[in-house]
Description:
With 193 residues, the chain is an all-alpha fold. The chain has a single domain, classed as Up-down Bundle (Ferritin). It is 72% helix and 0% strand. It is built from seven helices and no strands. Helix 2 packs antiparallel against helix 6, helix 3 runs antiparallel to helix 7 and helix 5 runs antiparallel to helix 6. The longest helix is centred in the C-terminal third of the chain and has 28 residues. InterPro entries: DUF305_CopM-like (IPR005183), Ferritin-like (IPR012347). This is DUF305 domain-containing protein.
Amino acid sequence: xxxxxxxxxxxxxxxxxxxxxxxxxxxxxxxxxxxxxxxxxxxxxxxxxxxxxxxxxxxxxxxxxxxxxxxxxxxxxxxxxxxxxxxxxxxxxxxxxxxxxxxxxxxxxxxxxxxxxxxxxxxxxxxxxxxxxxxxxxxxxxxxxxxxxxxxxxxxxxxxxxxxxxxxxxxxxxxxxxxxxxxxxxxxxxxxx
Length: 193
């Protein structure tokens, strides 16, 4: 009886494996396509969010800020590993740093903004981080929303995940800024309120 059960399980696994192999694989996005550019740009964007989070974790004392920064760091490092693997599979180069105008439209921090996270007193650095990360996340939403309906399922899934996660984190950032009496930075160009 035990042997028959094992055979049934093996047969089921074989059928399941055959069905998986029969599934069409998503087509590789074309070089220079919106999907490839999105993944390249989001990789660079995530790198900066990780950098900002690491910088504030070195000085922050507020447990809520520390917790949020660690969540952002770990979540975006994981997504970056996924995107790096996709770009390798697609034979596409990694993203390059955007020019100043493009970076501003993406909600990215300037070199001076990043330096302030190292030089401001701890409480001010925490507030600066919250303000910079809010604008940074708004830029990510601008980048991700057009790709939520992509025909490339990996990219569409990532765009939806970025939109959901970072929208939730913006609400947390707003709450922390409000508790500090700190106004947010202006939204990136193109962001609707």
